[in-house]
Amino acid sequence: QVQLVESGGGLVQAGASLRLSCATSGLTFSWYVMGWFRQSPGKEREFVATIAKSGGTTSYADSVKGRFTISRDNAKNTAYLQMHSLKPEDTAVYYCAAKLNGGSRDYDYWGQGTQVTVSS
Fold first, then answer.
1. Which residues contact residue 84 at a Cβ distance below 8 angstroms, ignoring those fewer than 6 apart?
2. 3-class DSSP state for residue 29?
3. 47, 64, 109, 119: least surrounded by Cβ within 10 Å?
4. pLDDT tens string 53-94
5. How far apart are CA 52 and CA 31, in angstroms?
6. What is the spatial distance between Cα 4 and Cα 22, in angstroms, rounded to a whole number?
7. Cα separation, 111 vs 79, whole angstroms
8. With 90 as the cut, is the pLDDT of residue 103 above it?
């Protein structure tokens, strides 16, 4: 059974930092592209960042570029999202996701999400 479990969310003030983790099990982690997405109330889920299987290539939404960093530790089967200079508009539920086919738009597995709330 594949599981993706996010952790590290919380309530912080604007300008603070948080590090989200996505611990996986039940899959060969190094075979999967990992992504982070977020969803705010009343909005559609949006892409945040993605990282290649080897960790060599990353991509970010313009809204987080320069503030967020995605990384992975294939030995620990875990992906991370380091977030700096948080803004109130970063408030959302953050989800990690995994996909086997790097060329596909669709992700195969999703976590349950972790809430990030940034106060002004």
1. 17, 67, 68, 69
2. helix
3. 119
4. 998 899 999 999 999 999 999 999 999 999 999 999 999 999
5. 9
6. 6
7. 12
8. no
